[in-house]
Design brief:
Helices cover 48% and strands 17% of the residues. The protein is α/β, with parallel strands linked by helices and 271 residues long. The two termini are 26 Å apart. The structure holds D-glutamic acid.
């Protein structure tokens, strides 16, 4: 069991922000990632659709013998974490609770921003978790679906990307937030541009960091840490879209990672 891979799912390339952190902190773990870029974005879909797709992705990962599931997508976490926890008999973690907890630790003035997809903002999961943990925190949420499109297109540094960030975050910049949760796993790929625009007074929270700690805690609790002393060479990243663009984004984003990229069709997932 300990040598089995950890499974990760996302609506596209965004989940790689979590995979990157796990590869850095837990380098001997094998990873199977599946990104559903063919049906991206999930953020504009109904809750029922997101639950259905998340089930399909997790069933595919289960067939690969994963020992633990990481829902590396805020939208899928908001819609399907409870369902998948109930349904699967392996540990399942999401990214919303770790992100919310990190923001509470980081903020000094209790004004926290959350940028996410439309579906995640509508779910109010971040707001609920933050208010539950710290009732005096003021939460400013904003849906920025355009950022997902930019990342899926691997348009991470262009003037167009900069102008979209400036336009979409203009109002948020006027608020008193000192901490901003990147509440969609695609957004850390734009972190430098977002930081440049908001300035150093706003601390960005990439939920991948606390999520990786949570993964480690789970693996230790369930005695599932991979005992191998060798760095993993067995990781596989699946995409439901064409492999070329996915691979380009993955190799740029995780230059140190050893992995191979493969396609899995949506039809195959639905079998
Ligand atoms: N990466 C996903 C998230 O964390 C969502 C992107 C999308 O498909 O809309 O919410």
């Amino acid at each position: 069991m300990k040598n089995q891979p950890i499974g990760f799912l996302d609506s596209g390339v965004g989940g790689l922000s979590v995979v990157k952190e796990v590869m850095k902190k837990l380098p001997n773990e094998n990873i199977i990632f599946v990104g559903d870029s063919a049906r991206n974005p999930y953020g504009n879909r109904t809750k029922e659709e997101v639950i259905q797709y998340s089930k399909e992705l997790s069933h595919f990962l289960l067939k690969k013998n994963i020992k633990m599931l990481v829902i590396a997508c805020n939208t899928a976490t908001a819609a399907a974490l409870d369902v998948l926890k109930e349904e699967l008999d392996i540990p399942v973690v999401g990214v919303i609770e770790p992100g919310s907890k990190s923001a509470i630790k980081k903020t000094k003035n209790n004004e926290i921003g959350v940028i996410a997809t439309v579906r995640t903002v509508e779910s109010a999961e971040h707001r609920n978790q933050i208010s539950h943990l710290n009732p005096s925190a003021k939460v400013h949420t904003l849906a920025v679906p355009k950022f997902v499109e930019i990342v899926e297109n691997n348009d991470l540094t262009s003037n167009y990307a900069k102008s979209v960030i400036e336009r979409e975050l203009k109002e948020l910049k006027q608020t008193a937030i000192d901490t901003l949760i990147l509440g969609c796993t695609h957004y850390p790929l734009l972190a430098d541009l977002i930081q440049d625009y908001l300035g150093e007074d706003v601390s960005l929270v990439d939920p991948a960091i606390a999520t990786t700690q949570l993964i480690k805690d789970y693996l230790m609790t369930y005695d599932l840490l991979n005992p191998s002393k060798e760095k993993s060479t067995d990781s596989v990243f699946y995409t439901t879209a064409k492999t070329e663009k996915f691979e380009q984004i993955a190799r740029n984003w995780i230059p140190i990672g050893q992995f191979r990229v493969e396609n899995i069709s949506v039809e195959e997932l639905q079998k």
